[in-house]
Amino acid sequence: MTLRSSRIPLVLGNWKMHTALEDACTLADATASIAAAHPEIEVGILPPALWLVSIHKRLGGASAVMLGAQDVAPQPSGAFTGDLSAEMLAPYTRFMLAGHSERRHLHGERDELVRDKLDAAWRVDRVPVLAVGETGEQRASGRATEVVARQLEVALSGRSAAEVETLVIAYEPVWAIGTGIAATPQDAAEMAAVIRAWLRALGPVAPERVRILYGGSVTAANAADIFASPEIDGALVGGASLKAEEFAGIVAAAGGRAT
Ligand code: PGA
């Protein structure tokens, strides 16, 4: 399974632990219409896993909006209470998110576990979305690039070009997530460039082929500025993905980036 091409702008809505089933269905329908109006880009939603089967069935295989999982367990099956394997999620999803800061910080997930989650997504031929990002304290002490490089190093060292080029990386500074304070477009673009430089040093990987999203307080109002940099290929959107109009504005801004 491949994406249409490697650097088509991509906007993903991470619904986190929001929505009741009925709201989720309504929002999925609205998002599908938004995606259908912008065939020049790719749009995906990551609903709560419990709703994936219903939404998948409702939207049908031809929907313009792709589905993703907010998290994935590394193991294919076994005694792992509460977890969902890549094999379970694969029939309903195209993307599998790993390393979101809420998993890293609230669930104590370490870089090594994030690496194993990427393996799980690749095992079932799905697209892993690797989230990386520094805390406010790490940025204030000048360690932002070092922290992101370490997250990349553990997750990606030793990977083949074929693997890395099917990956999506989401740069999400922890201090920008859910705070209403997005990184400046310059800071986001600079970190994306740092990530591509890091990928280049990895060896055989063509960093020009890897999509890098920005995430953290993206809104319809700031999206166009963020997407103005050619380094940024789209967004991982939390809060604003729950409001169809806001999300539509972000998708339209990414569509402007595509043309
Ligand atoms: P936010 O969340 O857009 O609400 O800041 C982004 C994310 O957590 O992916």
Overview of this structure, please?
- With 259 residues, this protein is of the alpha/beta class.
- It has a single domain (4-258), classed as Aldolase class I (TIM Barrel, Alpha-Beta Barrel).
- Helix content is 41%, strand content 15%.
- It is built from eleven helices and eight strands.
- It has helices at 21-36, 52-59, 86-89, 101-106, 111-123, 136-140, 144-156, 161-164, 185-201, 223-227, 244-258, and strands at 10-14, 42-46, 65-69, 95-98, 127-132, 168-171, 211-215, 234-237.
- The chain has an eight-stranded parallel beta barrel with strand order 1-2-3-4-5-6-7-8, surrounded by six helices.
- Helix 3 links the parallel strand 3 (65-69) and strand 4 (95-98).
- Helix 1 packs across helix 2, helix 1 (21-36) packs parallel to helix 11 and helix 5 packs across helix 7 (144-156).
- 2-phosphoglycolic acid (PGA) binds at residues 14, 172, 177-178, 215-218, 236-240.
List keywords for this structure.
41% helix; TIM Barrel; 259 residues; 8-stranded parallel barrel; 11 helices; 15% strand; alpha/beta; binds 2-phosphoglycolic acid
CATH architecture: Alpha-Beta Barrel
Radius of gyration: 17 Å
Shape: globular
- Largest sheet geometry: 8 strands, parallel, barrel
List the uncertain runs.
Answer: 1-5
Could you please say which CATH topology applies here?
TIM Barrel
The CATH homologous superfamily corresponds to Aldolase class I
Bound molecules: 2-phosphoglycolic acid
> So what's the CATH class?
Alpha Beta
Q: How many alpha or pi helices?
A: 11
Strand order of the largest sheet: 1-2-3-4-5-6-7-8
Task: Give the overall pLDDT as a whole number.
Answer: 95
Strands, total number: 8
Question: What share of the residues does DSSP label as strand, in percent?
Answer: 5-15%
